[in-house]
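INFO batch 0412 | record 1 of 1 | parsing
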Amino acid sequence: MSATLPETLQAPRAPRSDGEQSRMRLLLAGLRLFAQHGYNKTSTREIAEAAQVNIAAISYYFGDKAGLYRAVFAGPLSTPADDIARYADPAMTLPDALHGLYAGFLEPLKHGDMTQQCMRLHVREMLEPTGVWQDEIVNGIKPRHEALVALLARHLGLRRADDELHRLAICIAALGVHLQIAQDVTDALAPRLNSHPRALDLWSERLVLYALAMVDAEGVRRAALKKTDKREDKR
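INFO prediction complete | emitting C-alpha cells
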C-alpha cells in the first residue's frame, strides 16, 4: 500500500561535531530497515534501537521519520550537482566526460553492501511509492539526463535535442545503471568481472569504449540520413 510522506514537522538541525556518529548510525540503521520493511512498516523506535541512540535523536537531526527517510533515500554518497560536475564542462573531451559520467555510477560500488541496500530501497520506493521517487526523478535523474543530452548535442554538432538524442543518452546511462542495480546478477553470470582489484577501473574503460561506439554509430546514422534527405530534395 502506498502512502505520501507528510511534511517534516520541523527543519532538521545541522549535526553537532560530537553527534555526527549518532547521525550516521541513524542513517545506516534507517537505510537497512527501510530497505527491508518499507516506510510504513518501519517504526522510529526500531530505528533508534538499531542505531543505539535515543529516539529523540531522530527529531533532533531529521525533524521526524519522514525527514529521516528523505535523508536516507537521498543517500550519503553524492548529489546531482556533484555527479553533473564530473561531465558537464564544455571544455572536456568526450572520452573524459564519459569517464566522469561513469565514475558517478561506479564509485558507489566501492561501498559494497551500502550501495546494494540503497538499490533495494529505491526498488521498494518504486513498488510502494511515498512520493520521494518522483522527487528523485525531477530533482536528480532529470538534471543528470539533461546534462548528458547537452554533452552529446555539443559533440554531434546539434543545435537542439531530438528524440533520438534522448534515446542515445538513455542507452549510454543504462550501461552504468545496470551495473548498479544488477551487481548480484553480474556476480552470478561472470563472478570474475567484479572480483579483482582493478575491476572498477576496467569497467570504466570498457563503458567509455562502448559509449563512444554508440555515439559514433549515431553520428553515422545521422550523416546517412542527411545524405538521403539531400538526394530526395534533388529529385
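INFO post-check: Residues 199-234 form the longest helix (36 residues).
INFO record closed
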